[in-house]
Specification:
The protein contains 11 helices and 17 strands. The strands form 4 sheets. Strands 13-12-11-14-15-17-16 form a 7-stranded mixed sheet, with helices on both faces. Strands 2-3-1-4 form a 4-stranded antiparallel sheet. Strands 5-6-7-8 form a 4-stranded mixed sheet, with helices on one face. It has about 350 residues and is of the alpha/beta class. The chain folds into 3 domains: about 60 residues, Alpha-Beta Plaits (2-Layer Sandwich), CATH 3.30.70; about 80 residues, Met-10+ protein-like domains (GMP Synthetase, Chain A, domain 3, 2-Layer Sandwich), CATH 3.30.300; about 170 residues, Vaccinia Virus protein VP39 (Rossmann fold), CATH 3.40.50.150. About 30% of the residues lie in helices and about 30% in strands.
């Protein structure tokens, strides 16, 4: 808190209008926060305004008063990556800096071009300075690959670890991103699907990972039951930890195994809703998806990758044809959309399909 500072005092109903006027006149002290109480708004000033300026404002806000008040200092904005690296990298290298990064818990993940690789340590340190919530910076060291969809990383700054706790829509997840697949860019999709689930549904999440779909569904719906399957033993161990962490024991049932085998052996005909978030291979598991649905049918959330030559209509047709070959029927595709960009001219897409 500072000593009393010169300010404009106006009734709350005129606060927005007055602030807009004085901002245009550039007489607001931008280092201090505008304050208010039950009745008035207090706008800090740089200096005593000229009488003509005060009269101009009073013609539009007659109830304006000159007063003094104690204001809080504004926090200085965090410097950007460009600000921090401007004197350390050549202009052509600054232009090559990644425009975005993923943040999982307190770990930042970036992809650096070959020409930036030798500067990775100073780039990593700059990311730590620019992001107070980040404790570790990782650089991608390869593509997502293998049965478990894992990626190699290089630690370039901060604490030498790959495990963290990620928060998303009121849920928390233990994650080791070197051992399990997880994308923070799917957070809105996790929430969207969870909000579509109706109370009392049984859901089969065929490729559950650490549980971002399954746990959010269970947290949002008191009577929902979710069978969460994954082939990766590490993912299932983290899933179990996350079930306990989020207090959904008994509502989410973790199962280690191949989705097709698990469905055929344990979960045939039990689900109102099936989640198939394995975009590179989900088409090969549609038999398991339809087998998991109740005899009366239900909803499948089907994910796949598409590129610029694909159209959503073609994806719908391919999906419908596959369902018919399996002896089912697509009653309705209620939604079809691109979820996120995964590479230049490549996206992850989803179909929400009602199967009869």
């Amino acid at each position: 808190m500072k000593n009393p500072t010169l300010c404009f005092k106006v009734p709350k109903r005129h606060g927005g209008k007055t602030l807009a006027l004085v901002n245009r006149m550039k007489i607001v002290n931008g280092n201090l926060k505008v304050r208010s109480d039950e009745d008035f708004v207090y706008i800090p000033l740089n200096d005593q305004p000229p009488e003509a300026t005060i009269n101009t404002i009073k013609r539009q806000v007659a109830s304006l008063e000159i007063s003094t008040y104690s204001f809080h200092q504004r926090k200085k904005p965090q410097p950007s990556l460009i600000d921090l690296l401007g004197d350390k990298l050549a202009p052509h290298l600054l232009a090559s800096l990644p425009h975005a990064m993923d943040v999982v818990g307190d770990i930042a993940i970036i992809e650096l071009s070959h020409e930036l690789s030798e500067y990775r340590k100073i780039i990593g340190e700059a990311i730590l300075k620019a992001n107070q919530n980040v404790r570790t910076v990782l650089a991608k060291a390869g593509a997502v690959s293998g049965t478990y969809r894992l990626r190699e990383f290089t630690i370039i700054a901060g604490e030498p670890r790959t495990e963290t706790v990620h928060k998303e829509y009121g849920c928390q997840y233990y994650i080791d991103i070197s051992k399990v697949y997880f994308s923070p860019r799917l957070s809105q999709e996790h929430n969207r699907v969870a909000n579509l689930v109706e109370e009392g549904e049984t859901v089969a999440d065929l490729f559950a990972g650490v549980g971002p779909f399954a746990i959010q569904i269970a947290k949002n719906h008191e009577k929902a039951k979710v069978y969460a399957i994954d082939l990766n033993p590490d993912a299932v161990e983290y899933l179990k930890r996350n079930i306990r962490l989020n207090k959904v024991v008994g509502k989410v049932r973790p199962i280690l195994g191949d989705a097709r085998h698990v469905v055929n052996e344990q979960l045939s005909g039990i689900a109102d809703r099936v989640i198939m978030n394995l975009p590179e291979k989900a088409i090969d598991f549609l038999d398991a998806g339809t087998t998991a649905l109740k005899p009366a049918g239900g909803t499948i959330h089907f994910y796949r990758f598409i590129n610029a030559s694909d159209s959503m209509e073609n994806i719908k047709s391919e999906f419908t044809e596959m369902i018919e070959k399996l002896g089912g029927r697509v009653k309705k595709i209620s939604s079809s959309r691109r979820v996120r960009e995964t590479a230049p001219y490549e996206w992850q897409a989803v179909l929400d399909a009602n199967i009869g």
